[in-house]
Give the backbone structure.
Amino acid sequence: MDSPREIPTYQIFINKNEYQTLRDHMWSEESVSAKLKVNQKQYAVGIAYRGYHIRKLKKKSFRLTIQSPKLFMGAREYHLNAEYSDPSMIRSKLSFDFFKDIGNLAPSAEHILLKLNGSIAGVYLQLESVDDLFLTSRGLQAGHIFYASNDDANFSLITPENTIKQSLEAGYSLKIGFKEDYKYIRELIYKINTVARSDFKNEISKLIDVNKFLIWLVGVVCTQNYDGFIQNYALYRSGASGLFEIIPWDYDATWGRDIYGQTMEHDYVPIQGYNTLISRLMDVPEFRLMYKSLLETILEIKFNANYLEPHILSLQSRIRPYILLDPYKSKDISSFDMESEFIIQFINNRRAYLKDHLVALN
């Protein structure tokens, strides 16, 4: 077997005052100035904390905005995710690779070793930002991108707390586009919730790419991202077709673990997932059978231990030497070593559960 490839080392330098500002304003979205050094090249960057619950933990995630030169490896923004609650440190990477493998858009993700002001900060996952450059690099038409920024992005008129939403665009933030482009989200949410059952198939097909949405649904159901149905995604509306596609985001709480790193039983998420849009799509026999066919195929070819185990073990072996250097993870290397077996057992159990419940999609 070939020896694992080295992962890149990123060095970030923040002066004392800027670093103190960053730590004193933990919940701020404003960046402080820093320097990024990779492979002897230096970049001026802005750095800020990112995420929600991760900001409360010892090992925090960061957002990097590239300032000068304007791009770093073809992008102007990256996310450095701590993956702190994931004992394996590979769940997000494994998820995004899986989504791409089954034909869904997903951000690129690569592990790095981060040094902060000369000290090792640990192993991080460098995650590509979903923006206009994300589209360009994939040869996609320019369009609009909306982030599902909280759990109000459940495709409903009602919040998860059962209160009426203050606006149709509640739960979404505009990443690419202009303020007036929120009209596309408003139209989408309005029609999902008001179009008559007899007209829904035709009307929703004018707004979303149904086949691609169903491929995404297979991905989120297989990986069992409980939050992935109401947040943890981005919506891309093609300027050419006018149709929405959905892109996964934040996938560390997957493959049998929740956001706290605790066990999530393999049957926790139902076979059809959950949210208002999914419910309406599953109410259309043709769409439901399309979903069943896609799920059957992916369960047979892609979502099984024989197919996924080599990639899991490869990811684990590549980052293991660096986990030993991670001040937040090195003392629990035994948990890291055992987690691949946990993930593989989850795949076996989840796959069996989904195969047993395919009949519910008839």
About this structure: The first helix runs from residue 16 to 24. The two ends are 45 Å apart (CA to CA). Residues 155 and 247 are 15 Å apart (CA to CA). The chain has two domains: 9-129+307-338, 132-304+348-361.
